[in-house]
Amino acid sequence: MKKMIRVLMLLSIVFVFAIDNSQAQVIVRVPLRRPGVVVVARPHRPSPRHVWVSEEWAPGGRTYVYRQGYWAVPPQPGGIWIAGHWGHRGRGYFWIPGRWR
Could you tell me if 96 and 34 are in contact, meaning their C-beta atoms sit under 8 angstroms apart? Predict the structure, then answer.
């Protein structure tokens, strides 16, 4: 019985790690471009604490979805937004998201 419980515990742990796809990346053949002609008109800055977060690409199924820029308050005072960019691996490209520094 103990051996069966150990086997079931081991299988459940392996299963949990096998279905964890939070680190999975979407790979596309060419870096995507903005949809059509996009005029980036920054709205009025809400407060002096706000920082402009530039446009991003977010995974959306088997490709990426374009997200326009927006104003945000940094998670820590004096935070700087480092814009995302396209990375290349093998025969495709993937988006490296922006981050706060």
Answer: no
